[in-house]
C-alpha cells in the first residue's frame, strides 16, 4: 500500500474531510492564576495492558495510531492523547499524569511560576486540539491542500533531478529563462505567495497551467504535460462524482434512520472539491515519477539499505562532481517506487474487485501479460476509502464525538490568546458592501436631509430647560473644583483595529514614562478624554461602532463587570455604585463630538451608542447631546461643536454657546474650541469659506478668549501659532490631530498655509514631516495593487470593456512580418492608432466605455484646479488607461497568433486534449475487463462526457484559438450566441489577469504625480496606502497657576501582532474592581517589536499661559 502518500494527505488532517486550523499563533505563553489540582487524576496504564487499551480507545473514536502519528508529521506540536504510550508523551508527561498546582507553588519565584502555568495552558490547548481533530465540527475552512502542495513540490524537486536533470543541463542556455520564470511563478502561486482570496489563487493557477503546457520549452526538454493534466482532470471529475454520490446515499440513509443522527450536517462542497484536487495531485505525482506499472523488486529497501543507498550516492567515485552524483539519483528513485509505493497486489488477490479495477501498463486488452492492479488506481482507491471510512466514523456515536470542543468554546479560547481586530478599511474595494452603503447613506443624507431635517434642532427641542446655558444636558462643570487637571484629545478613530488599540492602550495607562531632553518624565493618565469626531469608518453602523471603535477601547481599558453592551441609558449620568454625584467620580471620563462620517445616517448611530450608553470601555460617558460645554479648573473651558455635514454650527447651537459666553465665561477665562473639520486648512486649500457661524462666535462673543482651536478630519498632526502683530488675535494656536487610528493623510500639501481670520500663522510642527510625507506617497506606485487587491475587480473589467469590441485582431501577425525591430515597432504603433480609430468609428460597447472613462476621469480631478487643467489632467489620465488597454489587447492577440502559427494551439476542434488522452489511455491504463464501457452504459454517457467537457473548459487557450479562427474566417455572425459568449468569457479570463497589474500601476502613478506635483487628491492618494503608522494623541495639563501645558505623544510604527499581556493576566482582579484602578489595565501588548508604551515619544510641546485678570485677552504664547 502506498503508505507515504497516505501519510502525506492524511497528515494534514485525521481525515480528508476537514482541516485543523493552524494553532501556531494561538499557542503562545499565557499566565493564569493558580487553579486547583484535578479532582480525579487521569488513568495510568500498566505496560502489559497498555497496547490493548490503546487499540480499544482508538477504535472508539475511529482513528488509528498510524493516523495520529501521521497527523504529528505535519503538526509536531500536537500533544499525544492521554491513551497513547508513555513514550509518546512529552517530558512533562512521562508518568502519564498532568501537571497540576500544589501548595509548593506559592513559594516559587514569579518567573518560574509563569513558565509552569504557561506550559500547562499550552498542554491543555494541545489536548483540546486533538479532541477537535476527532470531532465533526470545524470552525475554520479547509486549508490542508496548501500543506500538501508544499510537500508535493518538494518531492517533485527531488525526483525531477533524476528524470530531467541531464536534459536541463544539456539545454541550459535554451531553457534557463523559461524555467526561471515559470518556476518562480509556480512557487508564488502555489507555495509562497499568500493571496488575499483562496479563489483568486486557484483561478490564477488554472489559467497559468492551461497556458503552460502549450509552451514549446517544455516539449524541448522532453516534458509532455498533457498526460499529467488529462490524468488530473480525469481523476478529479471521477472523484468528485463518486464522493457526491456517496454523500447523497449517506444522507438518504440518515433520512431513513439507518445511520447516526449526527449525519444530518451536510458537508461543505468546497471541502469535497479540495479533497478531490488533493487526491488527483497525489495520483499524478505518483504516475509522473513511478509510472503505472509494477517495478520488479529484487530486494526490498529497508532502513539500513535506504541509508546505504543514500550514502552511496555521495561517496567518492571516479567522477565526483555534484552533477554526476545528482544524475545517479534515478537508482534511488526506482528503489523507492518499487518498495515504498508498491501497489496493493494483483487481481487474483482480490477476485471480487477484479472487474472494478484499472490495471498496470503491462496488462493488455484481452489476454493480459500481467494482472497487477494499477498503482495509481490503488492509491486513488486508498484515498477514497480513507475518506469514506473517516466520514462515516465522524458521524457515528461515541464519547469523543458527542463531547467535542464546540465552535463557540473554541472561538472563546482563541480570543483569550489573540485579539480579533478589524483590518484597515479597503477604500478602493470593488466588492465591499460597507463602501456601497457609505455612498448610499451619503447621497441620501446630502440629497434629502441637508437643509430639511437636522438632528441638532431635534436635540434643542428636547431640552428640558428653556435657558440652554443652564441646561445640564449641554453644560458640565463637575471638573471645575480641581486644582489641576490632565486631559487628552484624539480624533478619527475606528479604522484599523491595530492602530486604534495602540492609541487607546497609551491613553489607558496609569502613567507614561517618556524620555525627554535626556531625562524620563512621567505623565499621569488623563482624567478626561475628548474625541473630535469620525468615531468609526467607513459608515456609522452597529458593526463599525462595535468592532472598530468600542472593541479596541474595551481591550485597552475594560468596562465595569456589570456593564451590558445592549443596555440603553435612559437617565444619564448612570453613576457607578457608591458614587452619589458626577463630581465625586474619580475615574476617566469621555466627551466627544460627531464627524462627517458619523452623520451619514443622520446621527442615529452616534445618538444610540454615545448619548444613550454610559461606557466606552473603562471611560465613563456622561454626555447626553452631540455638542457640549465643559468648565475646567482655573478658568479654562472646552466647547465641543457639532458641525454636521454643513461644516458649521446651527442657530440653536450658536445661541447656546453665545449665551454661555455672555453669562458664564469670564473676561479673563480661556476657551479651547473643538470642531471636527479644520476649516483654517481646508478653506485655504479649497479656496472656500465655511464655518461663518463659528467665526462669528469667535470674533464677536469670545473676543480673543479662544486660545486654541483643535480639530481632526485630517489624519496627521500639525500646529500653527500666530505671529505677533498689532492686529487683534482671535485664535492663538491652530492644532490638527486626526491620528487616532485612521489611515494617514499627507502634510506636505498644506505646507504653504499662512493666514487665517486676517492673522498670520507659522507652522510649528508637522507630523510626519513634509519630506517624509512626500516620500510616503511613492507607495502609490509600488504598493497600490498589494494594498488594494480588490480594486482588480473594477480595474480589470474597465480595461476589458475599453477593448471588448476589438477582439479578435485577425491581421495582427503582419506586425511580425516586418524585417527589422524598428519596422515592427512602427507597425505596432500603427496598429494601435488603427484600433483607436476603429473604436471611435465602428464600436458601440468600447466607445461607450471610452466616453464613460473620459467623463469619470474629468470629474475625478478635484475642483481645486481650474476647469481647463481639470480637463487636461482627466484627458491624460483616461488616455493612459486606454493606451495600456490597447497595448495589452494587441500583445495578447499576437501571443495567440504566434501559438496558432507554430502549431502550439490547435484550431480543428474544442476537444483536442480529450481526443489525445483517449488514444493513449488504453495504452497506459488498460481496461481488460471493460470497466469504462460499463460505466458509460450505466451513466448514459455521463462518464466520458463530463471528462470531455471538463478538459475543454480547462484548455481555455485552445477554445480561444478555435473560436478566433472561426471568427477570422467566417465573421462573428457565423457563431451562435452561446459560442460568442464563450469566446469573450475566455478572452476576459486571460485579459483580466494581464490588465489588473497594469491598471493599478497606471492609477497609482496618477495618484503619485497628483499628490506630489499638483498637491491634489490628498485624500484619495493616501487612503489607498492604508497606512496604520504615525499615530498620536495630545495630552493637556492645566497647572495650578492656570497655565496650559500641551504635549503631543506619537508612535511612528504600530504593531501588527499582539499577545496577551502577562502583567495584565497575573495582576489580581477583584470581582467589581474598576479597571482604571489597575496597574496594568490593557489586555494586549505587542508580540514582536517595540510596544507602544516603550516606543512613544514627544513630538510637540508648548505652553499657553493663563490670561491675567487685568490684562488684554489677546495674550501671548511661548
UniProtKB/TrEMBL annotation:
Alphabetized GO MF terms: hydrolase activity
Region annotation (Disordered) ranges: 15-51
Annotated transmembrane regions: 148-169, 203-221, 233-256, 789-807, 842-861, 873-896, 981-1009
Entry-linked Pfam families: Metallophos
Keywords linked to the UniProt accession: Membrane, Transmembrane, Transmembrane helix
Domain Calcineurin-like phosphoesterase: 487-690
Source domain of life: Eukaryota
Composition skew (Pro residues), residue ranges: 36-45
Name of this protein: Calcineurin-like phosphoesterase domain-containing protein
Species of origin: Oryza nivara
Lineage: Eukaryota, Viridiplantae, Streptophyta, Embryophyta, Tracheophyta
Amino acid at each position: 500500500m502506498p503508505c507515504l502518500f497516505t501519510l502525506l494527505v492524511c497528515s494534514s488532517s485525521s481525515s480528508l474531510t476537514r482541516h485543523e486550523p493552524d494553532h501556531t499563533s494561538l499557542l503562545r505563553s499565557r499566565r493564569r492564576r493558580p487553579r486547583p489540582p484535578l479532582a480525579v487524576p487521569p488513568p495510568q496504564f500498566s505496560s502489559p495492558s497498555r497496547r490493548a487499551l490503546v487499540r480499544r480507545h482508538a477504535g472508539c473514536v475511529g482513528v488509528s495510531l498510524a493516523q495520529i502519528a501521521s497527523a504529528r508529521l505535519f503538526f509536531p506540536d500536537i500533544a499525544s492523547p492521554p491513551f497513547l504510550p508513555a513514550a509518546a508523551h512529552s517530558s512533562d508527561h512521562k508518568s502519564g499524569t498532568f501537571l497540576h498546582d500544589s501548595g509548593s507553588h506559592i513559594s516559587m519565584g514569579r518567573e518560574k511560576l509563569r513558565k509552569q502555568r504557561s506550559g500547562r495552558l499550552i498542554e491543555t490547548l494541545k489536548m483540546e486540539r486533538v479532541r477537535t481533530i476527532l470531532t465533526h465540527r470545524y470552525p475554520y475552512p479547509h486549508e490542508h491542500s496548501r500543506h500538501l502542495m508544499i510537500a508535493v513540490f518538494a518531492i517533485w524537486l527531488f525526483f525531477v533531478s533524476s528524470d530531467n536533470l541531464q536534459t536541463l543541463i544539456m539545454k541550459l542556455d535554451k531553457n534557463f529563462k523559461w524555467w526561471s520564470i515559470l518556476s518562480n511563478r509556480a512557487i508564488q502561486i502555489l507555495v509562497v505567495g499568500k493571496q488575499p482570496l483562496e479563489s483568486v489563487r486557484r483561478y490564477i493557477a488554472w489559467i497559468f497551467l492551461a497556458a503552460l503546457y502549450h509552451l514549446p520549452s517544455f516539449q524541448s526538454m522532453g516534458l509532455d504535460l498533457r498526460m499529467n493534466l488529462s490524468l488530473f482532470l480525469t481523476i478529479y471529475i471521477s472523484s468528485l462524482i463518486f464522493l457526491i454520490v456517496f454523500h447523497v446515499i449517506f444522507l438518504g440513509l440518515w433520512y431513513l434512520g439507518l445511520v447516526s443522527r449526527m449525519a444530518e450536517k451536510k458537508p461543505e462542497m468546497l471541502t469535497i472539491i479540495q479533497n478531490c484536487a488533493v487526491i488527483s495531485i497525489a495520483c499524478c505525482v505518483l504516475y509522473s515519477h513511478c509510472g503505472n506499472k509494477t517495478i520488479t523488486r529484487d530486494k526490498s529497501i529497508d532502513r539500513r539499505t535506504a541509508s546505504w543507498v543514500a550514502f552511496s550516492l555521495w561517496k567518492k567515485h571516479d567522477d565526483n562532481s555534484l552533477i554526476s552524483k545528482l544524475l545517479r539519483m534515478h537508482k534511488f528513485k526506482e528503489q523507492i517506487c518499487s518498495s515504498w509505493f508498491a501497489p496493493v497486489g494483483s487481481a487474483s488477490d482480490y477476485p471480487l474487485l477484479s472487474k472494478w479495477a484499472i490495471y498496470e501498463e503491462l496488462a493488455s486488452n484481452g489476454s493480459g501479460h500481467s494482472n497487477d492492479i494499477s498503482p495509481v488506481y490503488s492509491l486513488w482507491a486508498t484515498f477514497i476509502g480513507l475518506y469514506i471510512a473517516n466520514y462515516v466514523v465522524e458521524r457515528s456515536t461515541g464519547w469523543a464525538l458527542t463531547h467535542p470542543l464546540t465552535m463557540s468554546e473554541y472561538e472563546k479560547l482563541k480570543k483569550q490568546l489573540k485579539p480579533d481586530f478589524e483590518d484597515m478599511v479597503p477604500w478602493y474595494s470593488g466588492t465591499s458592501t460597507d463602501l456601497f452603503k457609505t455612498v448610499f447613506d451619503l447621497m441620501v443624507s446630502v440629497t434629502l436631509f441637508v437643509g430639511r431635517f437636522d438632528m441638532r434642532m431635534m436635540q434643542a427641542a428636547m431640552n428640558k430647560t428653556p435657558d440652554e446655558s443652564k441646561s445640564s444636558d449641554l453644560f458640565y462643570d463637575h471638573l471645575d473644583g480641581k486644582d489641576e487637571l490632565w486631559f487628552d484629545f484624539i480624533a478619527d478613530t475606528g479604522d484599523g483595529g491595530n492602530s486604534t488599540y495602540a492609541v487607546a492602550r497609551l491613553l489607558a495607562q496609569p502613567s507614561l514614562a517618556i524620555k525627554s531632553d535626556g531625562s524620563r518624565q512621567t505623565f499621569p493618565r488623563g482624567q478626561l478624554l475628548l474625541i473630535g469626531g469620525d468615531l468609526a469608518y467607513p459608515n456609522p453602523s452597529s458593526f463599525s461602532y462595535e468592532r472598530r471603535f468600542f472593541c479596541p477601547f474595551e481591550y485597552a481599558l475594560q468596562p465595569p463587570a456589570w456593564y451590558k453592551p445592549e443596555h440603553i441609558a435612559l437617565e444619564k449620568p448612570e453613576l457607578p455604585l457608591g458614587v452619589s454625584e458626577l463630581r465625586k467620580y474619580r475615574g476617566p471620563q469621555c466627551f466627544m463630538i460627531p464627524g462627517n462620517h458619523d452623520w451619514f445616517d443622520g446621527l442615529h448611530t452616534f445618538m444610540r451608542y454615545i448619548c444613550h450608553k454610559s461606557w466606552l470601555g473603562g471611560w465613563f460617558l456622561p454626555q447626553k447631546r452631540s455638542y457640549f460645554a465643559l468648565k475646567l479648573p482655573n478658568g479654562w473651558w472646552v466647547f465641543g461643536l457639532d458641525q454636521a455635514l454643513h461644516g458649521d454650527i446651527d442657530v440653536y447651537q450658536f445661541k447656546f454657546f453665545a449665551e454661555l459666553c455672555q453669562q458664564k465665561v469670564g473676561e479673563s477665562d480661556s476657551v479651547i474650541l473643538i470642531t471636527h473639520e479644520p476649516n483654517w486648512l481646508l478653506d485655504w486649500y479649497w479656496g472656500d469659506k465655511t464655518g461663518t457661524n463659528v467665526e462669528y462666535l469667535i470674533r464677536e462673543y469670545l473676543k480673543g478668549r479662544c486660545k486654541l482651536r483643535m480639530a481632526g478630519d485630517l489624519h496627521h498632526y500639525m500646529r500653527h501659532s500666530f505671529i505677533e502683530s498689532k492686529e487683534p488675535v482671535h485664535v492663538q494656536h491652530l492644532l490638527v490631530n486626526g491620528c487616532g487610528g485612521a489611515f494617514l493623510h499627507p502634510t506636505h500639501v498644506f505646507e504653504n498655509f499662512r493666514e487665517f481670520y486676517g492673522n498670520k500663522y507659522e507652522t510649528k510642527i508637522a507630523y510626519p514631516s513634509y519630506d517624509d510625507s512626500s516620500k510616503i506617497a511613492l507607495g502609490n506606485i509600488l504598493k497600490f495593487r498589494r494594498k488594494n487587491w480588490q480594486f482588480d475587480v473594477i480595474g480589470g473589467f474597465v480595461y476589458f470593456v475599453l477593448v471588448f469590441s476589438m477582439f479578435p485582431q485577425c491581421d495582427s501577425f503582419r506586425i511580425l512580418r516586418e524585417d527589422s525591430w524598428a519596422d515592427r515597432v512602427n507597425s505596432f504603433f500603427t496598429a494601435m492608432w488603427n484600433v483607436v480609430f476603429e473604436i471611435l468609428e465602428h464600436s458601440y460597447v468600447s466607445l461607450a466605455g471610452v466616453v464613460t472613462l473620459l467623463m469619470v476621469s474629468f470629474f475625478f480631478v478635484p475642483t481645486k484646479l481650474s476647469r481647463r487643467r481639470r480637463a487636461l489632467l482627466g484627458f491624460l489620465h483616461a488616455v493612459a488607461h486606454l493606451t495600456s488597454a490597447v497595448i495589452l489587447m494587441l500583445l495578447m492577440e499576437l501571443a495567440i497568433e504566434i501559438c496558432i502559427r507554430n502549431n502550439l494551439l490547435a484550431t480543428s476542434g474544442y476537444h483536442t486534449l480529450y481526443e489525445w488522452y483517449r488514444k493513449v489511455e488504453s495504452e497506459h491504463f488498460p481496461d481488460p475487463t471493460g470497466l469504462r464501457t460499463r460505466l458509460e452504459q450505466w451513466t448514459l454517457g455521463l462518464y466520458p462526457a463530463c471528462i470531455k467537457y471538463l478538459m475543454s473548459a480547462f484548455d481555455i487557450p485552445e477554445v480561444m484559438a478555435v473560436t478566433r479562427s472561426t471568427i477570422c474566417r467566417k465573421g462573428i455572425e457565423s457563431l451562435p450566441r452561446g459560442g460568442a459568449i464563450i469566446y469573450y468569457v475566455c478572452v476576459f479570463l486571460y485579459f483580466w489577469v494581464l490588465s489588473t497589474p497594469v491598471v493599478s500601476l497606471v492609477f497609482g502613478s496618477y495618484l503619485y504625480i497628483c499628490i506630489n506635483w499638483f498637491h491634489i487628491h490628498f485624500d484619495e492618494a493616501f487612503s489607498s496606502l492604508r497606512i496604520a503608522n504615525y499615530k498620536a494623541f495630545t495630552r493637556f495639563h492645566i497647572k495650578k497657576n492656570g497655565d496650559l501645558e500641551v504635549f503631543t505623544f506619537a508612535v511612528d510604527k504600530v504593531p501588527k501582532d499582539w499577545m496577551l499581556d502577562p502583567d495584565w493576566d497575573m495582576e489580581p482582579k477583584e470581582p467589581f474592581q474598576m479597571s482604571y484602578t489597575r496597574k496594568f489595565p490593557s489586555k494586549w501588548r505587542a508580540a514582536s517589536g517595540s510596544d507602544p508604551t516603550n516606543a512613544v515619544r514627544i513630538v510637540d510641546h508648548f505652553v499657553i499661559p493663563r490670561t491675567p485678570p487685568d490684562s488684554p485677552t489677546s495674550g501671548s504664547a511661548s
